[in-house]
Amino acid sequence: VQLQASGGGLVQAGGSLRLSCAASGSIFSINAMEWYRQAPGKQRELVAGITNTGTTNYADSVKGRFTISRDNAKNTMYLQMNSLDSEDTAVYYCHALGYRDTSHYSRLPFDSWGQGTQVTVSS
Known about the structure:
Helix content: under 10%
Number of helices: 0
């Protein structure tokens, strides 16, 4: 299963961006989708996650500013980011867990990462 992240870019502090992450391949189900980010010199951190039933969780640093959502019919996840500040500058990665169909009519778990999209917030 492949994940394609998009929507990053350069934005001024206080501005907004919307990231997308589209999953493709022989997908049977996607149980959870998450956004992580990694700033220069820092460890990768979880930003937000959403289950297939819509339960969400957020890092304290983004609560009230970021909103995660997903379109199960399109196997796509979104991250609406508002009130951005320089601390949000990072490469954002999407991550998904679920099950995929195989050529032998069975299902196997998958754990996939997207390629990352750069978000830069200028102050």
